[in-house]
Write a structure and sequence with these properties.
The chain folds into 2 domains: about 20-70 and about 75-170; about 170-265. The protein has 11 helices and 6 strands. With about 260 residues, the protein is an alpha/beta fold. Mean pLDDT is about 85; it is low at about 1-25. β3, α6 (about 110-125) and β4 form a beta-alpha-beta unit. A 6-stranded mixed beta sheet has the order 1-2-3-4-6-5, with helices on both faces. It has helices at about 15, 25-35, 35-45, 45-50, 60-70, 110-125, 175-180, 185-200, 205-215, 225-235, 240-260, and strands at about 60, 80-85, 90-100, 130-135, 145-150, 160-165.
Amino acid sequence: WLHAPSALDDYGAAGAADANSPTDADGHWKDALEALLEPCIAFFWPSLHADIDWNHPPAFLDKELRALAPGRRRNRRYLDKLARVQLKGGAQALMLLHLEIQQRLGSRFARRMYGYFARLQEVFPDETILQFAIVTRSASQGSVLHYHYAPKGQDFLSLSYRVPVVHLLDWAGREEELRRQAPANPFAIIVLAELAAARRSTPQARLEDKKQLVRSLYQYGWQARRIRQLFLFIDGILALPASLDEAFWQSLASFEKERNMAYIS
Protein backbone atom coordinates (compact mmCIF):
# COMPACT_ATOMS: atom_id res chain seq x y z
CA TRP A 1 0.00 0.00 0.00
CA LEU A 2 3.04 2.21 0.12
CA HIS A 3 5.38 2.61 -2.79
CA ALA A 4 8.65 4.23 -3.78
CA PRO A 5 8.60 7.98 -4.60
CA SER A 6 7.70 9.05 -8.10
CA ALA A 7 10.45 11.67 -8.34
CA LEU A 8 12.72 9.28 -10.23
CA ASP A 9 14.61 12.14 -11.84
CA ASP A 10 16.34 12.61 -8.49
CA TYR A 11 18.25 9.42 -9.10
CA GLY A 12 17.49 7.86 -12.46
CA ALA A 13 14.62 5.75 -13.73
CA ALA A 14 16.78 2.65 -14.09
CA GLY A 15 17.54 2.64 -10.37
CA ALA A 16 13.89 2.39 -9.40
CA ALA A 17 12.70 0.14 -12.20
CA ASP A 18 14.21 -2.93 -10.52
CA ALA A 19 14.38 -1.57 -6.99
CA ASN A 20 13.43 -4.94 -5.50
CA SER A 21 15.74 -7.04 -7.67
CA PRO A 22 18.72 -8.30 -5.66
CA THR A 23 20.61 -9.04 -8.85
CA ASP A 24 20.51 -5.47 -10.16
CA ALA A 25 23.40 -4.17 -8.06
CA ASP A 26 25.09 -2.78 -11.14
CA GLY A 27 21.98 -0.75 -11.98
CA HIS A 28 21.78 0.73 -8.50
CA TRP A 29 25.50 1.54 -8.54
CA LYS A 30 25.24 3.12 -12.00
CA ASP A 31 22.57 5.53 -10.80
CA ALA A 32 24.39 6.24 -7.54
CA LEU A 33 27.63 7.12 -9.34
CA GLU A 34 25.83 9.45 -11.73
CA ALA A 35 23.97 11.21 -8.91
CA LEU A 36 26.84 11.23 -6.41
CA LEU A 37 30.03 11.32 -8.46
CA GLU A 38 31.43 14.39 -6.71
CA PRO A 39 31.06 13.04 -3.14
CA CYS A 40 32.36 9.67 -4.39
CA ILE A 41 35.58 11.23 -5.66
CA ALA A 42 35.87 13.38 -2.53
CA PHE A 43 35.48 10.31 -0.33
CA PHE A 44 37.98 8.01 -2.02
CA TRP A 45 40.34 10.37 -3.88
CA PRO A 46 40.28 13.76 -2.10
CA SER A 47 43.39 15.10 -3.84
CA LEU A 48 41.80 14.47 -7.24
CA HIS A 49 38.55 16.05 -6.05
CA ALA A 50 40.47 19.20 -5.14
CA ASP A 51 41.84 19.43 -8.70
CA ILE A 52 38.40 19.36 -10.37
CA ASP A 53 36.21 22.41 -10.91
CA TRP A 54 32.87 21.05 -9.71
CA ASN A 55 31.09 24.26 -10.70
CA HIS A 56 31.04 22.59 -14.13
CA PRO A 57 28.94 19.42 -13.79
CA PRO A 58 30.54 16.23 -15.19
CA ALA A 59 29.29 15.16 -18.61
CA PHE A 60 28.66 11.41 -18.75
CA LEU A 61 29.74 9.88 -22.05
CA ASP A 62 27.69 6.68 -22.20
CA LYS A 63 27.60 6.61 -25.99
CA GLU A 64 31.36 7.06 -26.27
CA LEU A 65 31.91 4.36 -23.64
CA ARG A 66 29.76 1.86 -25.51
CA ALA A 67 31.77 2.56 -28.66
CA LEU A 68 34.92 1.41 -26.87
CA ALA A 69 33.47 -2.09 -26.52
CA PRO A 70 30.92 -2.54 -29.33
CA GLY A 71 28.70 -5.56 -28.93
CA ARG A 72 29.52 -6.04 -25.26
CA ARG A 73 26.54 -7.36 -23.36
CA ARG A 74 25.56 -6.02 -20.00
CA ASN A 75 27.49 -7.81 -17.27
CA ARG A 76 26.17 -7.59 -13.74
CA ARG A 77 29.62 -8.36 -12.33
CA TYR A 78 31.09 -5.01 -13.31
CA LEU A 79 30.18 -1.50 -14.33
CA ASP A 80 32.12 1.19 -16.18
CA LYS A 81 31.40 4.93 -16.19
CA LEU A 82 33.07 7.54 -18.40
CA ALA A 83 32.71 11.26 -17.70
CA ARG A 84 34.36 14.45 -18.90
CA VAL A 85 35.29 16.80 -16.08
CA GLN A 86 36.79 20.26 -16.03
CA LEU A 87 39.96 20.78 -14.04
CA LYS A 88 40.83 23.92 -12.19
CA GLY A 89 42.70 26.12 -14.62
CA GLY A 90 40.33 25.35 -17.49
CA ALA A 91 41.68 22.09 -18.93
CA GLN A 92 39.41 19.08 -19.32
CA ALA A 93 39.99 15.42 -18.52
CA LEU A 94 38.28 12.11 -19.13
CA MET A 95 37.45 10.19 -15.96
CA LEU A 96 37.10 6.42 -16.39
CA LEU A 97 35.76 4.64 -13.32
CA HIS A 98 35.38 0.87 -13.07
CA LEU A 99 33.23 -0.90 -10.49
CA GLU A 100 33.62 -4.63 -9.84
CA ILE A 101 30.63 -6.39 -8.25
CA GLN A 102 31.59 -9.94 -7.31
CA GLN A 103 32.94 -12.00 -4.44
CA ARG A 104 36.30 -12.67 -6.05
CA LEU A 105 38.29 -10.23 -8.12
CA GLY A 106 39.11 -11.90 -11.42
CA SER A 107 42.70 -12.13 -12.56
CA ARG A 108 41.77 -10.44 -15.84
CA PHE A 109 40.30 -7.33 -14.21
CA ALA A 110 43.47 -5.24 -14.51
CA ARG A 111 43.94 -6.43 -18.09
CA ARG A 112 40.37 -5.42 -18.93
CA MET A 113 40.97 -2.00 -17.39
CA TYR A 114 44.13 -1.56 -19.43
CA GLY A 115 42.20 -2.49 -22.58
CA TYR A 116 39.70 0.29 -21.92
CA PHE A 117 42.50 2.77 -21.28
CA ALA A 118 44.29 1.81 -24.52
CA ARG A 119 41.12 2.16 -26.60
CA LEU A 120 40.20 5.43 -24.92
CA GLN A 121 43.66 6.85 -25.54
CA GLU A 122 43.43 5.85 -29.19
CA VAL A 123 40.08 7.63 -29.62
CA PHE A 124 41.08 10.69 -27.55
CA PRO A 125 44.87 10.89 -28.01
CA ASP A 126 45.22 14.48 -26.79
CA GLU A 127 43.05 14.27 -23.66
CA THR A 128 44.12 13.66 -20.08
CA ILE A 129 42.74 10.32 -18.86
CA LEU A 130 42.06 9.63 -15.18
CA GLN A 131 41.31 6.00 -14.38
CA PHE A 132 40.55 4.13 -11.15
CA ALA A 133 38.43 1.30 -9.76
CA ILE A 134 36.11 0.43 -6.89
CA VAL A 135 35.78 -3.22 -5.84
CA THR A 136 32.69 -3.97 -3.76
CA ARG A 137 32.78 -7.57 -2.53
CA SER A 138 36.32 -8.90 -3.00
CA ALA A 139 38.94 -9.03 -0.25
CA SER A 140 41.61 -6.34 -0.46
CA GLN A 141 44.55 -6.92 -2.76
CA GLY A 142 46.22 -3.58 -2.13
CA SER A 143 45.54 -0.06 -3.28
CA VAL A 144 47.00 -0.57 -6.77
CA LEU A 145 46.23 -3.09 -9.51
CA HIS A 146 49.01 -4.14 -11.89
CA TYR A 147 49.06 -5.56 -15.39
CA HIS A 148 52.36 -6.62 -16.93
CA TYR A 149 53.04 -7.79 -20.46
CA ALA A 150 56.49 -8.97 -21.48
CA PRO A 151 56.19 -12.16 -23.58
CA LYS A 152 59.90 -12.26 -24.47
CA GLY A 153 61.34 -10.57 -21.43
CA GLN A 154 62.39 -6.98 -20.89
CA ASP A 155 64.65 -6.90 -23.96
CA PHE A 156 61.62 -6.95 -26.27
CA LEU A 157 58.17 -5.43 -26.09
CA SER A 158 57.16 -4.94 -22.46
CA LEU A 159 54.37 -3.11 -20.72
CA SER A 160 53.83 -2.20 -17.08
CA TYR A 161 50.46 -0.71 -16.09
CA ARG A 162 49.21 0.26 -12.64
CA VAL A 163 45.93 1.83 -11.57
CA PRO A 164 44.53 2.85 -8.15
CA VAL A 165 41.77 0.72 -6.64
CA VAL A 166 39.52 1.01 -3.57
CA HIS A 167 38.26 -2.14 -1.83
CA LEU A 168 35.04 -1.41 0.05
CA LEU A 169 35.54 -4.41 2.34
CA ASP A 170 38.50 -2.52 3.82
CA TRP A 171 35.80 -0.45 5.56
CA ALA A 172 34.20 -3.51 7.21
CA GLY A 173 34.36 -3.07 10.97
CA ARG A 174 34.71 0.70 10.58
CA GLU A 175 31.01 1.51 10.46
CA GLU A 176 31.19 4.03 13.28
CA GLU A 177 33.89 5.92 11.40
CA LEU A 178 31.67 5.95 8.32
CA ARG A 179 28.74 7.29 10.34
CA ARG A 180 30.94 10.09 11.64
CA GLN A 181 31.94 10.97 8.07
CA ALA A 182 28.38 10.89 6.71
CA PRO A 183 27.40 14.48 7.68
CA ALA A 184 30.31 15.84 5.62
CA ASN A 185 30.07 13.33 2.79
CA PRO A 186 26.89 11.39 1.91
CA PHE A 187 28.87 8.75 0.04
CA ALA A 188 29.67 7.23 3.43
CA ILE A 189 26.02 6.10 3.45
CA ILE A 190 26.53 4.34 0.12
CA VAL A 191 29.49 2.45 1.59
CA LEU A 192 27.50 1.54 4.71
CA ALA A 193 24.64 0.18 2.58
CA GLU A 194 27.02 -1.87 0.43
CA LEU A 195 28.71 -3.32 3.52
CA ALA A 196 25.30 -4.28 4.93
CA ALA A 197 24.40 -6.00 1.65
CA ALA A 198 27.74 -7.83 1.58
CA ARG A 199 27.15 -9.34 5.03
CA ARG A 200 24.48 -11.66 3.59
CA SER A 201 22.65 -11.62 6.92
CA THR A 202 19.16 -12.99 7.61
CA PRO A 203 16.19 -11.15 6.10
CA GLN A 204 15.20 -9.84 9.54
CA ALA A 205 18.72 -8.52 10.18
CA ARG A 206 18.72 -6.92 6.73
CA LEU A 207 15.42 -5.23 7.57
CA GLU A 208 16.94 -3.74 10.72
CA ASP A 209 20.03 -2.56 8.79
CA LYS A 210 17.79 -0.95 6.19
CA LYS A 211 15.59 0.80 8.76
CA GLN A 212 18.62 2.14 10.60
CA LEU A 213 20.28 3.42 7.43
CA VAL A 214 17.14 5.08 6.07
CA ARG A 215 16.32 6.74 9.40
CA SER A 216 19.86 8.09 9.60
CA LEU A 217 19.25 10.06 6.38
CA TYR A 218 17.06 12.51 8.31
CA GLN A 219 19.76 13.39 10.86
CA TYR A 220 22.09 15.49 8.75
CA GLY A 221 19.94 18.33 7.45
CA TRP A 222 20.11 17.15 3.85
CA GLN A 223 17.62 18.36 1.28
CA ALA A 224 14.80 16.03 0.26
CA ARG A 225 16.43 15.41 -3.12
CA ARG A 226 19.63 14.13 -1.50
CA ILE A 227 17.66 11.91 0.86
CA ARG A 228 15.79 10.37 -2.06
CA GLN A 229 19.01 9.75 -3.99
CA LEU A 230 20.50 7.85 -1.06
CA PHE A 231 17.24 6.08 -0.25
CA LEU A 232 16.88 4.64 -3.73
CA PHE A 233 20.32 3.05 -3.48
CA ILE A 234 19.61 1.64 0.00
CA ASP A 235 16.20 0.38 -1.10
CA GLY A 236 17.67 -1.38 -4.12
CA ILE A 237 20.84 -2.83 -2.62
CA LEU A 238 19.04 -4.07 0.54
CA ALA A 239 16.05 -5.72 -1.14
CA LEU A 240 13.66 -7.53 1.20
CA PRO A 241 11.12 -10.35 0.87
CA ALA A 242 7.62 -9.05 0.19
CA SER A 243 6.35 -9.54 3.76
CA LEU A 244 9.29 -7.66 5.29
CA ASP A 245 9.20 -5.02 2.57
CA GLU A 246 5.65 -4.14 3.60
CA ALA A 247 6.75 -3.94 7.22
CA PHE A 248 9.60 -1.65 6.22
CA TRP A 249 7.30 0.76 4.40
CA GLN A 250 4.86 0.82 7.32
CA SER A 251 7.71 1.61 9.69
CA LEU A 252 9.01 4.35 7.40
CA ALA A 253 5.57 5.94 7.05
CA SER A 254 5.21 6.09 10.84
CA PHE A 255 8.73 7.48 11.22
CA GLU A 256 8.12 10.26 8.68
CA LYS A 257 4.73 11.08 10.15
CA GLU A 258 6.23 11.49 13.64
CA ARG A 259 8.76 13.99 12.26
CA ASN A 260 6.46 15.63 9.73
CA MET A 261 9.03 14.88 7.02
CA ALA A 262 7.28 12.95 4.25
CA TYR A 263 10.26 12.81 1.89
CA ILE A 264 9.85 9.20 0.76
CA SER A 265 6.62 7.46 1.86
